Amino acid sequence: MVSRILIPHDGTEMSDRALEKATEFAKAMKAEMIIVHIIDSRFMPPSATLGFISDRTSLEGTKTELIRILRSGAELMLREKVAKIKASGINIDFILDVGSPAEEIVKIARNSACDLIVMGSRQLSKVGTDALGSVARKVSETADSPVMIVR
Question: What does the alpha-carbon distance between residue 126 and residue 130 come to, in Å, rounded to a whole number?
């Protein structure tokens, strides 16, 4: 029985498709939903690298401001999606965090006792074969709960 579904959402159409599919399952199984957005900290320069930059204070301030802006936009997006789903009678909440997306998704699924992860994936082409996007691949390989990938 599925009682809690985790839906990672990065703001893309593929994530919207996964959210629609998860909503169908939640209605049918009377399950709760958690939608999660992880701001990818990997594109931020590591602190050790900042030591080689003369204007370190300015760069740290810019990094903090960029995360604040991304967090604000993501929270607005999540609140809109949550409101729409709540209106259909489903219990849903959201989590917004900063880190490595795949690692944080798996950690949140474990800590929230999620029975199912439903996520979208870009289809990457590798010399004539199809491959999952790196986040979906890593989540599907490391999560304790089943992972449904929606394309």
Answer: 6
| pLDDT tens digits, 7-43 | 999 999 999 999 999 999 999 999 999 999 999 987 7
User: For residue 121, what are the CA distances in angstroms to 11, 48, 53?
Assistant: 12, 32, 36
Tally of domains in the chain:
1
Domain that holds residue 108: 4-150
The larger pLDDT score, comparing residue 42 to residue 140, is at 140
User: In this structure, are residues 90 and 78 in contact, taking their beta carbons and an 8 Å threshold?
Assistant: no
CATH code of residue 136? 3.40.50.620
Judged against a pLDDT cut of 80, whether residue 75 lies above it is answered with yes
Contact at 8 Å (CB) between 124 and 107? no
What is the token pair recorded at 80? 């809109």
Distance between start and end Cα atoms, the chain: 24
The string of DSSP codes covering 41-69 is GGGSPPHHHHTT-TTHHHHHHHHHHHHHH
